[in-house]
Every structure is written in structure tokens, then in C-alpha cells.
Design a protein that fits this description.
By secondary structure, the chain is mainly alpha-helical. The protein contains 3 helices and no strands. It has helices at residues 12-51, 55-61, 65-73. α1 packs antiparallel against α3.
């Protein structure tokens, strides 16, 4: 006759795991938000630097004045 032992994992030990899982989710969300903020800041700085380039500099990097103007006018959240 085989006996099995029932274990209840949702007791004291299970209750301690729940806050850790919630903390992990909040941490991942915060890191994603920080990642987006860094990307947006870089885009903003690059577009600002592009606005300071003259016609000759734009020609050197292979960008027309019209393309540069379109890129400068984009909001920071658009790629």
C-alpha cells in the first residue's frame, strides 16, 4: 500500500514568495521605463545636434537639408 504525503506550498513559505515576485515585476517595469527615457534623451540630443549642422556638414554625412529638417521636427518618442 503506497502512501503519499500532501504538502501545502501556499502556507507560510508561499506567502513570502508573492512579494518577491511582485517586486521583480515592478523592477522590470522600472528598468523598461528607464530604458525608454535613455533612448528618448539620446534621440533628442542627436536631433538637436543635427539642427546645428550647416549645409556643408550635412552634405558630408550624406543627408539633404530637407531630410535633416524632417528628422529635426520629429518628436522624441518617434524613431
Amino acid at each position: 500500500m503506497a502512501h503519499t504525503i500532501e504538502t501545502n506550498l501556499t502556507g507560510v513559505a508561499g506567502a513570502a514568495v508573492q512579494p518577491l515576485r511582485a517586486f521583480g515585476k515592478v523592477r522590470r517595469f522600472a528598468l523598461k521605463c528607464l530604458h525608454f527615457i535613455v533612448i528618448w534623451q539620446e534621440r533628442n540630443e542627436q536631433r538637436h545636434a543635427l539642427s546645428g549642422l550647416g549645409e556643408r556638414m550635412l552634405k558630408d554625412i550624406g543627408v539633404s537639408a530637407g531630410d535633416a529638417y524632417k528628422e529635426m521636427r520629429k518628436p522624441f518618442w518617434l524613431p
